[in-house]
Amino acid sequence: MPRLGRRSLLAGSALALMAADTVPALNARAKRRGLFFGSALSDDTLANDPMATARVDAECGMVVGEASYKWADIHPAPQTYDFSRADALLSFANSHAIRTRGHTLVWHEGNPDWLEPTLNAGNAENILTDHVRTVVGHFKGKLVHWDVANEVIDPDDKQPLKLRRTLWQRALGPAYLDIAFHTTAETDPGALRVLNDFGTDYTLAWQERKRVALLELLADMLRRGVPVQAVGLQGHLDAGEITLDQNVMAKFVADIASMGLKVIVTELDVRDQRLPADISVRDDAVAAHARAWLDAVLASPAVLGVLTWGMSDRHSWLNDKFPRPDRLTQRPLPLDVGLNRKKLWSAIAASIDSAPIRTAMR
User: Fold this and answer.
1) Taking 50 as the threshold, does the pLDDT of residue 5 lie above it?
2) What is the pTM of this model?
3) Which domain holds residue 166?
4) How far does Cα 264 stand from its chain's mean position?
5) Which of 293, 292, 342 is nearest to 314 (CA)?
6) DSSP tag of 81
7) What CATH number does residue 302 fall under?
């Protein structure tokens, strides 16, 4: 990220905040349609970037911690739980009348060093149950959603139900999902229980296999009484990808809804590392790509809302994970590094404005 002088940062932020006062923010627009809009918020942003945090407050009606609820942060030792980061996020949200969702109770990444060497078939159920019960219990009645399980599908791994081969799958088989969802439901029945995953956005062959596998897994879970209530579509998009088919995406969301499940866009951002360096070209492509995908998804009344994986290009995981060959900062989020609204912000706003009206938010 280019270094900005303090005066430039303050001036840019002041202008952005003034714009937010005169043009309806994304969450205000979403509420008109019975939706919500929100963003991930990192511990570092919350602690060290008050101007970026203020823009989250201005635009969002929901936040999710990028890391603060994951095992490595919240359960750093076998008998130790540390809720300080997650509590700080919740305190910020509550003080600004912003709702909070939890991410994530079960994932194959983001785990403390002690977990995998300790885990075996004999103790895995107790460890998982204790973790879910303790963490969900700590926040009972305070969070509106839980991503109970994250990124569980790998259709090419040839495991039962096309589950990803993970520490939990090796120790417990498919039962780990049952344990996590039932324990969450028993501990905080009021929090929406979400199965969150990525890679269902395009007509690429592996993504078609993943859509099929996810639908089959959901059907199996529902048949067995596993209390899953919603699907999180991460929406990590690539503006250089030409295999976006709105009809395919709309049908996939409709298929999920036909099972009686809700849908949430949980982690939206748009990579630009395959696009030219010109900012205007990149911003046009990112905005158009997001608009096409969102229009297809939001057409379903089963969709509850949209969260981006960060609000500003100041803070995006994509610059480390998918760096541009020219090393320029990517522009994947609604606000630029000066916290000004971009074409992507306008595309999200337009898609929300054109979405069918829902009767209620969750």
Assistant:
1) no
2) 0.93
3) 6-353
4) 8
5) 342
6) -
7) 3.20.20.80
